[in-house]
Known about the structure:
This protein has 7 helices and 38 strands.
Amino acid sequence: MVDRERSHTSPVETTGDDRLVARGFWRSMVLVMCLTGTIVGFLLFRTKPAVKPGSAEPAASPSAPPSAAITPPRGVSFVDVAHEAGVDFVHESGARGGKLLPECLAGGAAIVDLDRDGRLDIVFTQGEPLEPVVGDPAIGRGGIRVYMNATTDGTLKFVRLVGDDALIAGCFANGIAAGDINGDGRADLYVSCVGRDRLLLNTTAMAGTPSFVEQAVPDEREWGTSVGMLDANGDGRLDVVVANYVRWSPAIDRSVNYTLDGIGRAYGPPTGFEGSMLTMLLNTDEGLRDVTETSGVAIKNPVTGAPYAKALGLAFVDVDRDGRTDILVANDRTPKFLLRNEGPSDDGTPRFADIATAWGFAFDRDGSATGAMGIDFAWPRNNNELAIAVGNFANEPSSLYVAPIGSATLSDEALGQGFGAPTRRFLTFGTLFVDVDLDGHEDLLQANGHLEPDIARVAPSQTYAQRGQLFMNRGGASIPLFIEAPPETTGDFATPVVGRALAAGDLDGDGDADLVEVHLGGRARILRNDQRTGNHWIALALDGGSHPGRALGAEIEVDVDATIERDDSVHTQRRALTPTRSYLSQNEPIARFGLGAATEIREVRVRTTDGDVYRVHNVPIDRFTTLVLDELTVDARHGKGQQMTSDGH
């Protein structure tokens, strides 16, 4: 009886009983409904905080950057006339599928008057296979290619020098420097290579067919990149500085074995390779002598003592205004160098000390060492404020280091001056300040292109070929100082290529600067400047006589009536007469000044590397002029550290 009664009032719970499942479901639903009601009630009937005056107003939108309200300036159109002008140079990278690192970084160019006929010629560096296979037609074809300027009546025309491929055949050539090494008035050529560098002394008769004699140089067997000439010790002779990249051989490259996605080899960063050192060659009666170690340019890691340089870009300028030319070095993933010239030792050896960290130049604004390639400098506000532009790797904005007037430090102001954000997604090599529209303000150009042909496979935002960029200088105290010109206004410069060397010079003699751009593994471009502003200009070269070193590296200032700035002050521009800038490049050895609407200049001042200051008047506009230093009167002699202008200009 008891068991039966219990069965009616309290059923036994057994596995699989559907009544229990239904009961559990409804219990859960009741619980969810209760919780939902509690939350809704809290939201509807909770005590709201008192509204403070003004707090109910909509929040203001973040302030737009200064550049957002600026109408992008129209750029200058460049037209590629290489085919019509007879320049058929095609760069040989040496790439044969092995993905050896030198193949992705090569391609140099120089703009220089080799035969002294007043027209600028072009020299290209050429590569070859690094691991040749029998039957490859490019074997032994590395070296240089020379195109002589035969322009008449403004129509660009070049003629290739017969036999140029045999001048220094059999080398993987990278950078090139031009200057009068032996003091005979002709521009000689120093070519940096993967391995032994080469020096060609120019023996060309005036306006004759170019001829060269190779002269032996110290055999340092480094991987040379950018190279330049300067008077490092103030003796009037041109010395040589070579930027070297990393310790490299095919075997080392394969042991690093960088890949993009774990499958197959790729061109990688230099982090897996040991660093190198710059090479300093002193010009003596016995030829070039290696003074790398004794000159102080052999910078080493302060912790490990290993060579520190992974150098790609090189430029020369008197940064600290003491009258001696300093050296700027763009290193790839190691700190950049600022080598202050401390004057020669008693035996004439130049002495340099790296002050990059102390001056704020070694790292970017975040304290990192960037993948720095191209480099150039200028005084873009036409005062004593030096600016140094550095082209960096993809996803790193280009840098713009500025030394304010009276300051002994540099700070990266690229982002605030309009030069940072637009450059972030580009991989930059050639980097140049050029007044492309002759308005009296130097603009900024970048040649871009990636290392890896397959980069889009792992980074969809990247491309192998990339367009060039032109940033127009707004002048004076404008903030931001630079605004990128829309690509549709820059002509063929905006056509994507795998850009490397970028050099500037007036090839057609019309007063504005044209461009030579090397395309890695492709056809070079001759970009004619087609600006139509009607602005005036002057172009100045220096003849140093028997001491060419005092001309190359000199600073030239020009005072112009202030129509450019639209006020009553004197407009002063400054140029350093040094062709070693950009990347693997030599630019015209000429100081070119845009004058805007001004029809005369007040004064020209020249400060040579030995400290002499010359003042020149009555220089004609819209004309190229050579100033022969031996024929000028020295205004101030040996004024080391003397400022040619006040800080107010």
